Each structure stands twice: as structure tokens, then as C-alpha cells.
């Protein structure tokens, strides 16, 4: 009976929240059976591979050569491979051509452990009269420096001086190949993002958090288990923080409070991985005191959330295609300061990797410029994590606090603009007074 009443209370609260916030409730999205996942992923890969000749022509190279051995793969291998390949085998050599002779293939793969791989490669290079061969031997960009040092020596030795002279490094090849997200991936990316939100929404609720008892690490491990139950994985350990609990965020000493209390402002940094895609999201939650409703959230907190939403808008509007990450950073920080507030910006590409290929718009410790990676141009048809914080003075606490958010965006090629993949946080997740307290109130009545 009491439970029945309690459910009514919860439903009513849910309705109030829904009407007040008018946001869609994220649902857990089930993944298709593994065989179906593999065919979906292979179709994406085929589409990406078909774009390679065009990519080579864009950067003015004639051929792209990757060579690797089992367990010593080139970074690009992971974006080239089929869904049923789990590593390179023997020596795996991939060659792509910008302008294949008519009637011949633009793409060659050898999986071999005999010298035949080199003699056959030389036959193709000669027949195609290749004038430049890009190799992933960059010194600074991870996605273009996956050619192992020993493997480069092997290539030079086997191809000989004539072809050695034609080797070139073009960092944007790896960056653009890995960074570009074919349109058909978006449907599933959105479902991954929705699942990310659904896990955060449940984690930041009274069904997981009991103030006075639950610790931040309880929530982190609850999230890990939830990911596992859904048959997803992740690319980093979920991170839950109590903002400004004795120790400011970002300066987590072992003495930082871990047990969640009423009135806490909580923060999560959380992402999932599935079907070769990754998400990265930061949200905040407020723990209501017993008897409180969302009307009781301190004004200062609401103001802080608005402020960081504003910073998201500023950065998103400055993400002009072709502009460098460093320019976007400078313009955005300048605009933020002209609007009279402070904060930090550290956005990164996302997709095949959690921190994926493309220009960086600041890093948490680099707010003037990011060397090399910040100088790359912003590419269209990519996904980005808009990651940042805004400072805001909270009168109720008599202190300036940092308000942290992170949401993923994708490039909408029709609108020619960035769009939130699933949405962005504009309302705090709320941890309602614990079930036990409501229960007590019900039976007392
Ligand atoms: C091979 O390419 C070079 C330019 O890179 C050109 O001068 C030469 O004529 C080409 N040879 C053949 C056989 O196509
Ligand atoms: C996870 O995988 C198992 C085994 O295939 C399956 O029984 C279960 O229904 C899956 N769970 C979800 C939430 O998709
Ligand atoms: C970080 O913590 C240390 C030790 O608790 C403290 O001395 C220091 O002032 C803190 N730094 C910041 C930026 O709050
Ligand atoms: C607010 O904090 C400042 C210093 O940070 C202090 O000088 C002031 O007395 C505080 N005000 C109240 C009302 O506690």
C-alpha cells in the first residue's frame, strides 16, 4: 500500500519535471545482434574506403602505404579493418591509389609472411607509375604517426632507393580519414548518445543515490555495471565528483569528500563505446533536501548552468569550418570575456576514438594555444565534444564556482551548422529525497 502510494508520488514528480522542463526522456537503446552490428559497421567502412582516392587527391599525394605486423598496428588500421578482424595478421600491407590506371583497383591488401608481399607491391607501384607515397610517419599527430619505426626501415630496405625518394608525410590524410564520419553513422551515434544520457539520468537519481550513504565511487561502479548489462563498453572510467566539496574540482586530493550529502552539486564525466563509436558527456546534478522540489534549487546554481550554456553557444557558433582550433579558442575566449565572465574551453573531436582525429579547441591546461594540433583546420562531417566550464558567483555559498558541461555535436551538412547529437543539459538532474523518507511520511500519515 505504502509502496503503491510512493509510486504515485514518484509518477507525479516525474510528470511535473516533464512539463516543467519539456525535455525528451532518454531511453536505453539495445544494440542489434553481433552479426547485424558487423554488417552495419562494414557498410560504414566500405563507404569510408570509397572516399580514399578523393582524399589522396585533395592532399596531392599519389598513393598511401600502410604496413604493420600482428599486434604492432598502424593507428589507421583500426578504422580500415573489417568488423571481424581483431588485429593485423602476419605482415598486413595496405596500399591506396589516388588515380588508379583505368580498369585497375585503387586499393590493395596483402596479408603475408613471405617476401612475396614486397615483390607484388613493387609490381603495383611500377605498373601504376606512382610519383609520391604517403606513409604515417608524422612526428606530432598520433593519427598520422602509426607507422612503427622498424616497419619504416623495412619498407625502405625492401622498396629500395628509387621508391624511398618518393616517400612523403601528409598528416591530414590520417586525420581526415579517421575524423570523417559518414552520414549513415549518425542514426546509431544518436542512439549511443541517448543511452549515455539514460545511464547518467538513472545514476543521478534517488534509485541509485541515497544521501549520507552512497559514495561517488559507488555511482562510478554502478555505471560500469550498467554499461556491461547493456552490452556496451567504454573508453574511460566514469568519473563522479562532488563539486566544491572541501576540495575544488580538478584538485582531487585523497581527502576529498566521497559520501554524497543533501545539497550537493554533483558532476559526472561519462562516455560509452559500441559499434566502433564513442561518446563523451559531462552533466551536473543537484541533491534536494527532504521536502524540497526543483523550486528550491539555489538561484546561484541555476545561474551557473545558464552561464555555461551560454559558453557552449559561443563556442559552437565560432566553430567555422576551415578555421584552426587555436583561432576558435581565441575568438571564443574573447567573446566570453566581452560578455563579462570567465571560463575554460577544451573541445576535442570524437568518433572512432574518444579523443579522435582533428584540431583541438584548447586543452584544460592550454588556454593560449595548443601547439600543432590546434593549428589544424576544423573539418566538416566530423563529431566534436564541446567540453568546457564557466565560472559563476554563487551567492548562497559566497564563492565563485566552476560549472562543467560536455556534449557531443555533429556537422549537419544540409544546415551547414553543428547540432547537438541528442541534446544538451539545460536542467539539473535531481536526486529527490530518499525513498525511505517518503516512505516514513506515508506511513506516518
Ligand atoms: C610516370 O610519371 C612521370 C611523372 O611522375 C611521367 O613523367 C612519366 O611519363 C610516367 N611514365 C609512364 C610510363 O606513364
Ligand atoms: C546482452 O547480450 C545478451 C547475450 O547476447 C542478451 O541475452 C541480452 O538480452 C543483451 N542485453 C541487452 C540489454 O541488449
Ligand atoms: C590543491 O590542493 C592543495 C592541497 O590540498 C592546496 O594546497 C592547493 O591550494 C589546491 N590548489 C587549488 C588550485 O585549489
Ligand atoms: C564572503 O567571502 C568573502 C571572502 O571570500 C568574505 O570576505 C566575506 O566576509 C564573505 N561574506 C559572508 C557573508 O560570509
Give an overview of the whole structure.
- The protein folds into two domains: 2-33 and 181-443, Creatinase/methionine aminopeptidase superfamily (Creatine Amidinohydrolase, Alpha-Beta Complex), CATH 3.90.230; 52-178, 3-Layer(aba) Sandwich (Creatine Amidinohydrolase, Chain A, domain 1).
- Helices cover 36% and strands 19% of the residues.
- The protein is built from 13 helices and 16 strands.
- It has helices spanning 2-21, 34-50, 52-58, 77-80, 116-128, 149-159, 161-164, 171-179, 186-203, 216-229, 299-318, 325-338, 435-444, and strands at 63-69, 91-97, 107-112, 133-134, 167-168, 239-242, 265-270, 273-274, 277-278, 281-287, 343-345, 348-350, 383-394, 399-412, 417-420, 429-431.
- Strand 13 and strand 14 (399-412) form a beta hairpin.
- The radius of gyration is 25 Å and the shape is elongated.
- The two termini are 13 Å apart.
- Mean pLDDT is 92; it is low at 1-21 and 439-445.
- The structure holds 2-acetamido-2-deoxy-beta-D-glucopyranose (4 copies).
- One 2-acetamido-2-deoxy-beta-D-glucopyranose (NAG) binds at residues 248, 251, 253.
- One 2-acetamido-2-deoxy-beta-D-glucopyranose binds at residues 30-31, 230-231.
Strand content: 15-25%
CATH class of the largest domain: Alpha Beta
The coarse silhouette is: elongated
CATH topology of the largest domain: Creatine Amidinohydrolase
Q: Kindly state the percentage of residues in helix.
A: 25-40%
Amino acid at each position: 500500500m505504502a509502496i503503491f502510494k510512493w509510486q504515485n508520488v514518484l509518477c507525479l514528480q516525474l510528470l511535473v519535471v516533464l512539463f516543467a522542463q519539456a525535455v525528451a526522456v532518454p531511453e536505453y537503446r539495445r544494440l542489434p545482434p553481433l552479426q547485424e552490428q558487423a554488417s552495419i559497421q562494414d557498410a560504414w567502412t566500405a563507404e569510408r574506403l570509397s572516399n580514399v582516392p578523393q582524399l589522396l587527391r585533395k592532399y596531392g599525394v599519389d598513393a598511401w602505404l600502410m604496413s604493420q605486423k600482428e599486434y604492432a598496428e598502424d593507428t589507421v588500421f583500426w578504422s580500415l579493418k573489417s568488423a571481424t578482424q581483431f588485429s593485423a595478421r602476419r605482415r598486413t600491407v595496405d596500399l591506396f591509389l589516388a588515380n588508379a590506371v583505368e580498369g585497375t583497383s585503387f586499393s590493395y591488401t596483402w596479408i603475408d609472411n613471405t617476401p612475396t608481399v614486397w615483390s607484388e607491391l613493387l609490381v603495383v607501384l611500377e605498373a601504376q607509375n606512382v610519383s609520391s607515397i604517403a606513409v604515417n610517419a608524422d612526428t606530432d599527430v598520433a593519427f598520422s604517426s602509426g607507422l612503427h619505426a622498424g616497419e619504416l626501415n623495412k619498407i625502405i630496405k625492401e622498396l629500395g632507393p628509387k621508391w624511398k625518394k618518393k616517400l612523403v608525410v601528409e598528416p591530414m590524410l590520417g586525420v581526415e580519414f579517421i575524423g570523417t564520419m559518414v552520414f549513415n553513422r549518425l542514426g546509431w551515434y544518436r542512439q549511443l548518445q541517448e543511452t549515455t544520457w539514460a545511464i547518467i539520468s538513472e545514476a543521478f537519481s534517488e534509485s541509485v543515490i541515497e544521501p549520507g550513504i552512497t559514495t561517488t565511487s559507488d555511482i562510478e561502479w554502478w555505471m560500469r555495471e550498467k554499461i556491461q548489462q547493456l552490452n556496451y563498453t567504454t573508453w574511460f572510467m566514469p568519473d563522479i565528483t562532488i563539486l566544491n566539496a572541501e576540495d575544488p574540482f580538478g584538485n582531487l586530493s585523497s581527502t576529498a569528500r566521497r559520501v554524497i550529502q543533501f545539497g550537493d552539486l554533483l558532476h559526472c564525466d561519462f562516455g560509452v563505446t559500441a559499434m566502433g563509436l564513442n561518446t563523451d558527456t559531462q552533466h551536473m546534478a543537484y541533491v534536494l533536501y527532504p521536502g524540497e522540489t526543483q523550486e528550491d534549487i539555489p538561484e546561484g546554481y541555476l545561474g551557473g548552468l545558464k552561464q555555461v550554456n551560454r559558453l557552449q553557444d559561443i563556442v559552437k557558433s565560432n566553430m567555422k569550418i576551415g578555421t584552426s582550433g587555436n583561432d576558435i579558442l581565441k575568438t571564443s575566449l574573447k567573446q566570453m570575456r566581452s560578455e563579462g565572465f570567465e571560463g575554460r574551453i577544451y573541445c576535442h573531436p570524437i568518433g572512432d576514438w574518444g579523443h579522435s582525429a582533428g584540431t583541438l579547441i584548447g586543452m584544460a591546461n592550454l588556454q593560449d594555444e595548443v601547439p600543432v594540433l590546434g593549428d589544424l583546420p576544423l573539418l566538416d562531417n566530423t563529431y566534436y565534444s564541446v567540453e568546457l566550464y564557466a565560472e559563476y558567483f554563487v551567492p548562497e555559498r559566497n564563492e565563485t564556482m566552476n560549472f562543467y558541461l560536455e556534449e557531443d555535436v555533429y556537422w549537419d551538412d544540409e544546415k551547414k551548422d553543428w547540432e547537438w547529437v541528442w541534446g544538451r543539459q539545460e536542467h539539473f538532474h535531481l536526486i529527490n529525497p530518499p525513498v525511505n523518507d517518503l516512505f516514513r511520511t506515508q506511513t506516518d500519515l
